[in-house]
Amino acid sequence: MAGPGRAKNVLVWHVHGSWTQSFVAGGHHYLVPVAGDGGEDGIGLAGRSWPNAREVPLEELGREDIDLVVLQRPHEAALVAHWAGRRPGSELPAVYVEHNAPRPSPTQSRHVVADRTDIPLVHVTDFNRLMWDNGRALTRVIDHGIADPGHRYTGDILRAATMINEPVRRNRVVGADLLEPLSAYAQIDVWGIGTEDLPAHRGGVIGRGDVAAPALWDRIARRR
């Protein structure tokens, strides 16, 4: 385990590409699980070029000197306990980053770590912290952010741009149901995981697929 002031070995799953890209740009070493089937519990770097991060097969997590785990989904604590042999919170320092608004109820949803005092809960908006039932968990708000890529705007394509992962499956949870009516005023290009599944020829909405930065920034910069 790294000493005070030294770079830490941080275990984090690649769940949200843009958030993960910003997170692994910090001054630590980031261990990103990869599974043989490439499923959601181990997509690894997924082709991203992240110098401070490296892929670690799930079955080899127990050999790694992990200082901290960043949890983002309810079942990840069980994955850590199974593959790394240490329970998050009690045996391995952990934080839980909650990216989503409360569900299924906007007012009655109790968070999975609400009864824990050993795993701080980090929300990405003040609204989410207010609406989730956080119980006894210590909470903080850290907004999503990206490093400034510099001036790129050209606006030469008369379309709007948005980024939504899995818009068909998640639909109203991410506001994907608003895309078609909004496209009556401005045609919309959508980037992100699963956007190619958006219905073709439905309003002015086109799914453009999952494109990694910096290519994504250049494509967005061309939209108005």
From TrEMBL:
Superkingdom of origin organism: Bacteria
One MF term in the entry's GO annotations: transferase activity
Record keywords, A-Z: Transferase
Protein name: Glycosyl transferase
Organism annotation: Mycobacterium scrofulaceum
